[in-house]
Specification:
Blueprint (H helix, E strand, L loop, with lengths): L2 H7 L14 E3 L1 H7 L2 E5 L12 H14 L4 E7 L3 H12 L3 E7 L6 H8 L3 E5 L4 H17 L4 E4 L6 H21 L5 E6 L3 H13 L4 E6 L4 H19 L9 E4 L10 H14 L8 H13 L6 E5 L5 H5 L1 H7 L4
Parallel strand pairs: 2-10, 3-4, 3-6, 4-5, 7-8, 7-10, 8-9
Antiparallel strand pairs: 1-2
Helix pairs in contact: 1-7, 3-4, 3-7, 4-5, 7-8, 7-9, 8-9, 10-11
The protein binds pyridoxal-5'-phosphate (PLP) and 1-aminocyclopropanecarboxylic acid.
Cofactor: pyridoxal 5'-phosphate
Keywords: Pyridoxal phosphate
Family: Belongs to the ACC deaminase/D-cysteine desulfhydrase family.
Amino acid sequence: MHPKIGALLAKFPRIELIPWETPIQYLPRISEMLGVEVYVKRDDLTGLGIGGNKVRKLEFLLGDALAKGADTIITMGAVHSNHAFVTALAAKKLGLDVVLVLRGKETLKGNYLLDKLMGIETRVYDVEKTPDLILYAEKVAKELEEQGKKPYIIPIGGASPVGTLGYVRMVGELSTQISSLGLKFDTIVDAVGSGGTLAGILLGLELTKLEVEPVGMAVGIFGEKMMQKVVDLARESAKLLGVSVELKEPRIYDYSFGAYGKIVREVAELIRLVGTKEGILLDPVYTGKAFYGLMDLAKKGELGERILFIHTGGMPGIFHYGEDMLRLLNLQ
Ligand SMILES: Cc1ncc(COP(=O)(O)O)c(C=O)c1O
Ligand SMILES: NC1(C(=O)O)CC1
């Protein structure tokens, strides 16, 4: 762990949910295809339930919740939400109650199937917009308070200054890994949904002075709005840490293929390519789109000679959208 990052984070309550450092893996066959070196940080292997990037955020978010005496966790997302399921599993593991406030249609596949299998309380609403979901979550919190409970609301994706500390810590872990490997990366690439992961990477790179350019592949909202959200989150986390930093705006590209959650043939094909070339499974909502962007931009020489992809998990998405992908690949 980078000493400065370790010292800064030591004052924040953190529950250890990840008992190891996630490995960095070279992708020889993808690298050969692209003519550049591609490595992947296996944050799909964070180890709790389905793993993924949210577990890093939850170490600090649930630490904060317990420090504040919470007894019930409320969070929200789409019915297919990785964040919602892994939050619920972590909360249960810590002996906390949990209510998931979800949008969409109840579909017993992927994460929602896991929600039900684990006996997690879910409230599903047929709404499209996040603000509507937040209103419902606040209503649930009020209902629980009236029952004498102490609820703690975690925003979508854990995208808060406290949650962002999880990826500041990841960079602290990464910096010691790459110095012992003797590697220097030109770019570090991740999928951008709620923006918290990229915000933590941005702040972590500034604090460690690691000379790697962060590049986000947006799978939903993109452009100026997402850029501002990422930079604001990083700034608020810096304030939380009590540090003043100069933050450069990261490059964020639109690889949503038109809309968040839109399942497309190109990404289904990419998932098969990476799976059969490297034995690594990506998902159709987040990491498959982000890796598509990585390969697209690497071919144009826009990511440098040595690229690090942060594999942020998402495997249940394969099972939520498997039939759609089979149809797109003319296999059904
Ligand atoms: C599997 C997966 N990867 C990446 C992301 C993006 O992370 P963030 O919400 O921190 O931008 C998410 C959630 O949005 C996700 O579930
Ligand atoms: N990745 C997000 C999830 O709910 O899994 C959108 C935050």
